[in-house]
Amino acid sequence: MAAESVQKDRIVVVGSGAFGTALAAVAASSGKASVTLLARRESIVEDFKQTGRNDSALPGIDLPGALIVSDDPAVLEGAGIVLFAMPSQAQREAGRSLYGFIGKGADVVICAKGMERASGRLLTDVVEEELHLQNVAVLSGPGFAADIAKGLPTAMVVAASSIERAAVLAEALSGATFRLYPSADRIGVQLGGALKNVLAIACGIVEGAGLGDSARAALISRGLAEMSRFVAARGGEADTVRGLSGLGDLVLTATSHQSRNLRYGIALGQSGSASGHSGELVEGAFAASVAADVARQLGVDMPVTAAVAAIIDGKMDVKTALERLMSRPITQE
Ligand SMILES: NC(=O)C1=CN([C@@H]2O[C@H](COP(=O)(O)OP(=O)(O)OC[C@H]3O[C@@H](n4cnc5c(N)ncnc54)[C@H](OP(=O)(O)O)[C@@H]3O)[C@@H](O)[C@H]2O)C=CC1
Ligand SMILES: O=C(CO)COP(=O)(O)O
């Protein structure tokens, strides 16, 4: 049975991967709340006890002594803020399995960048359904987990169903080097995070195929235009796309080799077609096809996303996709 009363100064981060660990570290460092990182493997708890780190996710980075690491979901009972920092495709299952532990008064914040692959639904809708909650928030924007955990300056966005709620969450989760901007556009913020991953793969393909930095700049700006059309068609605000969670994150992931999506794209560009990859999480590879399908259903033109989806699905090689993109009718920018 879900606990009804919650303590707003108790934060639990679910998912002990790179991002969850980094968010837990900055929140614990700020000293504003008691912070627990909930792992699903006992070895993470043991590693933290022995080394003060989570080397499986963030090798060599010392975590704050105030952080609590646990593998017991009961730590969720009474937590005021719960961050869901597992991959997009695990959000539904996590919501379902943790339903009994999360209080009705808790602020649940999705910290994944994607949409549900099987349905194209927003992750906020998916998690609200599983937790029987409303007003699930979302945290997104430009920030690599390792940078955040090392205390390098980072700015991201937290979007809630009201700007007042978002401001409360931004204040609670920000720290000396981690700054959150509140937003009331949950749709725009989460779709920006989902689509920039697909566009980062496109930029990686361009880099891997040796097509030059001019092509990358063209992809970033034309990609931003299609992101904007998609966000507006799904009820978000086109303006959000120009902020941290859209343009900011797109620039970061489309240009930094720290990005897994970019590296995956580079491998595609080098091999010329879809091939096996390292096994690390590449959210854009899940989002590409479903975004292209939903765009088709909505009548939204998304040529870059469609090309990435066709390459990943093995329906087109890089050379053909490029020829198709370059031979599209010339239209006004
Ligand atoms: N890494 C980064 O720099 C950033 C990542 N993000 C986003 O954060 C999300 C997570 O990415 P990241 O942390 O990098 O991924 P990782 O691959 O580093 O970690 C994923 C973690 O999720 C855990 N997990 C998977 N399924 C469940 C579940 N059902 N319940 C609880 N935990 C689960 C895994 O547990 P186990 O270890 O037991 O398998 C693993 O610890 C992605 O959507 C990503 O786009 C956003 C900004 C920055
Ligand atoms: O979203 C990220 C940084 O903002 C992390 O990007 P990757 O998942 O491509 O590594």
TrEMBL record:
Listed transmembrane segments: none
Pathway info: Membrane lipid metabolism; glycerophospholipid metabolism
Catalytic activity: sn-glycerol 3-phosphate + NADP(+) = dihydroxyacetone phosphate + NADPH + H(+); sn-glycerol 3-phosphate + NAD(+) = dihydroxyacetone phosphate + NADH + H(+)
Residues the record lists as binding NAD(+): 15-20, 145, 260
Catalytic residues, chain numbering: 196
Protein location: Cytoplasm
EC number, as in UniProt: 1.1.1.94
Sequence ranges assigned to domain Glycerol-3-phosphate dehydrogenase NAD-dependent C-terminal in this UniProt record: 185-322
Binding annotation for NADPH: 19, 40-41, 113, 145, 260, 281, 283
Enzymatic class: oxidoreductase
Keywords associated with the record: Cytoplasm, Lipid biosynthesis, Lipid metabolism, NAD, NADP, Nucleotide-binding, Oxidoreductase, Phospholipid biosynthesis, Phospholipid metabolism
Sequence positions that bind sn-glycerol 3-phosphate: 113, 141, 196, 249, 259-261
A GO cellular component entry from the record: cytosol
Chief localization: cytoplasm
A single MF term (Gene Ontology): glycerol-3-phosphate dehydrogenase (NAD+) activity
Domain Glycerol-3-phosphate dehydrogenase NAD-dependent N-terminal: 11-163
Binding site for substrate: 113, 260-261
PANTHER family reported in the protein's UniProt record: GLYCEROL-3-PHOSPHATE DEHYDROGENASE (PTHR11728), GLYCEROL-3-PHOSPHATE DEHYDROGENASE [NAD(+)] 2, CHLOROPLASTIC (PTHR11728:SF1)
Family (UniProt): Belongs to the NAD-dependent glycerol-3-phosphate dehydrogenase family.
Protein name: Glycerol-3-phosphate dehydrogenase [NAD(P)+]
Species this protein is from: Pararhizobium polonicum
Gene: gpsA
